[in-house]
Amino acid sequence: MTEQPVDKYVEDLTSRLEKAIDNLSGQKHDDSIDNHIRDSQRSVKNKPVPYREKISKLSAEVVDSNPYSRLMALQRMGIVQDYEKIREKTVAVVGVGGVGSVVAEMLTRCGIGKLILFDYDKVEIANMNRLFYQPDQAGLSKVDAARDTLIHVNPDVQIEVHNFNITTMDNFDTFVGRIRNGSLTNGKIDLVLSCVDNFEARMAVNMACNEENQIWMESGVSENAVSGHIQYIEPGKTACFACVPPLVVASNIDERTLKREGVCAASLPTTMAVVAGFLVMNTLKFLLHFGEVSHYVGYNALADFFPRHSIKPNPTCEDSHCLIRQKEYQNKKSSETIDIDFQTTEEEPIVHEDNEWGIELVDESEPATTTDEKTSSDVAEGLKFAYEPVKKEVESKEAGNTDRETAENAKNDALLKLKDILLEADMMKKMEEKNQLTKKH
Ligand SMILES: [Zn+2]
């Protein structure tokens, strides 16, 4: 007997044993299914095969085979008015790591129209403490691995991927271009979600979104893995990422035990999933117009505390596009306020409160607070700035720098004058309308 037949015999026996074990455990082994899953999910070279055909119209029919029945039920429950609108929406996800990959999966399962993914990292075995990626995807680029899984999960979603770092000049331009023209109709996209882990990339997203007047949401998890946050940023209306130092959740942990230079950051799938969940929930509320879109939600895992907050933009923000957006927003808000006054206050005297026009100076000495909005120096309980806000004005005043004081006063005067002009216009229009009403009677 030669060695060859023995090997063959062992191989046959092994195969028969495997089949017998599969039959015994009731799991009929089907090589074609295995191969299909492997090919569709894992290989970048062989394009994934979606598990079903695309669905052209969402159905609310309650059958086991309808992937949208539970989502369409949101309409029946009175939560969302028109769920199918989600199919027209395009969302860019910058960074598909521990938070971004879960965000992309959630949006895919919700049937978003299009996702544009940006990342330049590769999947590593060290990422396996988080959700989404599988060990056999190690070595693949994150965006390719994500696309393959997502196409398989929901073939209706269009997935565009960019395997590059958005902070380099050429890539930044491409990134801006995709914000401008990346939608399903080659127009402006609906939302940018920042799921990156560094300041530079956040600043790049901030700059692009201020330039393009693009609403975006920022997210972050702490390096000790026990806190995180999401933040809604509407250029001109809310503080941008450059307006104030990043707002983070106060951990009440001894600073000396926190991460030191060169020490590996911690991460937990729990914190990342909570932050991803908040981010996608806020996204759905924003895109489908239901509930209340939060401006900032923090998560303190140690105390199970979720502080909420809202910050107005800083009129001395260093991002020039932020200042342009602030002006645009104030103009828009002023004209809207006048319109509303005319429709609703026919008999009532006009009472203009301090923040009627939303003209607000972020003055550290006297924070003017409205309902739940606060100035940049004032944060909700349980929150703090990542570093101390730069108090240029205060410092210069202390140093007796009258130039800055004069400039500040001039700005205040100009804003007060603007407010007066708007008030006057409001009064004139109102009187005119009253005259017309009297003529009619
Ligand atoms: Zn700003």
TrEMBL record:
<dbReference type="GO" id="GO:0071569">
    <property type="term" value="P:protein ufmylation"/>
</dbReference>
<comment type="function">
    <text>E1-like enzyme which activates ufm-1. Required for interaction between ufm-1 and ufc-1.</text>
</comment>
<dbReference type="GO" id="GO:0005524">
    <property type="term" value="F:ATP binding"/>
</dbReference>
<dbReference type="InterPro" id="IPR000594">
    <property type="entry name" value="ThiF_NAD_FAD-bd"/>
</dbReference>
<feature type="region of interest" description="Disordered">
    <location>
        <begin position="24"/>
        <end position="46"/>
    </location>
</feature>
<keyword id="KW-0833">Ubl conjugation pathway</keyword>
<comment type="subunit">
    <text>Interacts with ufc-1.</text>
</comment>
<feature type="compositionally biased region" description="Basic and acidic residues">
    <location>
        <begin position="24"/>
        <end position="42"/>
    </location>
</feature>
<protein>
    <recommendedName>
        <fullName>Ubiquitin-like modifier-activating enzyme 5</fullName>
    </recommendedName>
</protein>
<keyword id="KW-0547">Nucleotide-binding</keyword>
<dbReference type="InterPro" id="IPR035985">
    <property type="entry name" value="Ubiquitin-activating_enz"/>
</dbReference>
<keyword id="KW-0862">Zinc</keyword>
<comment type="similarity">
    <text>Belongs to the ubiquitin-activating E1 family. UBA5 subfamily.</text>
</comment>
<feature type="domain" description="THIF-type NAD/FAD binding fold">
    <location>
        <begin position="68"/>
        <end position="318"/>
    </location>
</feature>
<dbReference type="InterPro" id="IPR029752">
    <property type="entry name" value="D-isomer_DH_CS1"/>
</dbReference>
<feature type="region of interest" description="Disordered">
    <location>
        <begin position="393"/>
        <end position="413"/>
    </location>
</feature>
<keyword id="KW-0067">ATP-binding</keyword>
<dbReference type="GO" id="GO:0071566">
    <property type="term" value="F:UFM1 activating enzyme activity"/>
</dbReference>
<dbReference type="GO" id="GO:0005829">
    <property type="term" value="C:cytosol"/>
</dbReference>
<keyword id="KW-0479">Metal-binding</keyword>
<dbReference type="InterPro" id="IPR045886">
    <property type="entry name" value="ThiF/MoeB/HesA"/>
</dbReference>
<dbReference type="Pfam" id="PF00899">
    <property type="entry name" value="ThiF"/>
</dbReference>
<dbReference type="GO" id="GO:0046872">
    <property type="term" value="F:metal ion binding"/>
</dbReference>
